[in-house]
UniProtKB/TrEMBL annotation:
Organism: Idiomarina aquatica
Keywords, ordered alphabetically: Membrane, Transmembrane, Transmembrane helix
Recorded coiled-coil stretches: none
Transmembrane segment boundaries: 6-26, 70-89, 96-116
Entry keyword Ubl conjugation: no
Keyword Membrane found: yes
One cellular component (GO) term of this entry: plasma membrane
Pfam families for the chain: SirB (PF04247)
This protein's name: Putative membrane protein SirB2
Domain of life: Bacteria
Length: 124
């Protein structure tokens, strides 16, 4: 069961990153796509499923988010990614949006490193 949730989790991560990059590009192009109802709803549904799959893996493996440093870093990394993702998508200027996008991508790279290596970057 854990493996099934892990595969779902990875799928939701990929979809989430694709949505983030796509919405950022649309923002830079000032596309009307950002005003479509489904564009505003689907990422939230996907991110909810992403979170639920992560919780399911924690429950199945009987891990607490603060028990393992690498899991703690993933949680902190997700918070950083969300904060700077919001800056990228809601920034008041192109410079602010680009800053948010670059920093969010750095957080994503750190998250992938921690997730694949199961080794914390800072807390270890």
């Amino acid at each position: 069961m854990y493996v099934a949730f892990k595969h779902l989790h990875v799928l939701f991560v990929v979809i989430s990153v694709i949505f983030f990059i796509t919405r950022f590009v649309w923002k830079q192009l000032e596309s009307g796509m950002l005003q479509k109802k489904w564009v505003k709803i689907v990422p939230h549904i996907n991110d909810t499923l992403l979170l639920l799959s992560a919780i399911a893996m924690l429950v199945i493996s009987q891990r607490a988010p603060i028990a393992d440093p690498w899991v703690t870093e993933k949680v902190l990394g997700v918070i950083g990614y969300i904060v700077f993702g919001l800056v990228a998508l809601k920034g008041s200027s192109r410079a602010v949006s680009w800053f948010g996008f670059v920093v969010a991508c750095v957080w994503l790279a750190a998250l992938f490193h921690v997730a694949f290596g199961k080794m914390p970057l800072v807390l270890g």
